[in-house]
Every structure is written in structure tokens, then in C-alpha cells.
Specification:
about 110 residues, alpha/beta, 5-stranded mixed beta sheet, two-stranded parallel ribbon, about 40% strand, elongated
């Protein structure tokens, strides 16, 4: 039994955009199939909404604990998820603190 099964007529795959079911178990994509086995579980039908892999933004400047009024973890991650971004890679420069040393990195953590 799956935690979640998503169906869309527009699932973005390596081979192109196709109708498919995305099977998610314990919060992880376990399979992408074109037909579900009988008794697979409840399906959430997304219709023709496009279902695509999460996007990685490899160049962000999260200014926490420094200039959070500019952008901290909360605003950066909320904005990312609103745009379909699932992974942020914080840049070490032009952020506060600048994370170019172990001490600064520990402060950031």
C-alpha cells in the first residue's frame, strides 16, 4: 500500500511528457508507472496539471542569522516551494554570515 499515488496526463519524464502514476512511499518517489496494479491504493487525480521533478536552485544567498530582514531561511524556503523549487544551495559569499570558515559555517548552522 502506498502513502500517496498521483495521476496526471502530463507527467514530465526523461522520455517526454506522458500520462502516468507517481507512486510515493514514506515521502519518497518509489515508482512511476503507466498502469497501477489492482489494489494499489487511493489515487489523487491531478487531471492535466503538469507534474514534474523538483527544481534545484544552486545559487541563493540566505542571510541568516545576519540580515534576515532581507532574506532568511523562512522567506527563502517559502518562496522556493511556491515556485516548485525543492532544494536550495546557499552561496558562501554576499550573505550574512559569509560562510568561508568553519566558525562562520557553525554560526550559520
Amino acid at each position: 500500500m502506498s502513502d500517496l499515488i498521483l495521476k496526471s496526463t502530463k507527467v514530465v519524464l526523461e522520455s517526454g511528457m506522458k500520462e502516468a502514476f507517481v507512486v510515493i512511499r514514506k515521502g519518497i518517489i518509489a515508482d512511476v508507472v503507466h498502469q497501477l496494479p489492482e489494489g494499489a491504493g487511493e489515487v489523487t487525480d491531478l487531471g492535466d496539471k503538469t507534474l514534474l521533478p523538483g527544481v534545484i536552485d544552486p545559487h541563493v544567498h540566505i542571510n541568516e542569522p545576519g540580515r534576515t530582514e532581507w532574506e532568511g531561511f523562512e522567506t527563502a524556503t517559502r518562496a522556493a516551494i511556491a515556485g516548485g523549487i525543492t532544494t536550495l544551495v546557499d552561496m558562501p559569499l554576499n550573505a550574512s554570515p559569509v560562510t568561508t570558515s568553519v566558525k562562520s559555517f557553525e554560526k550559520k548552522l
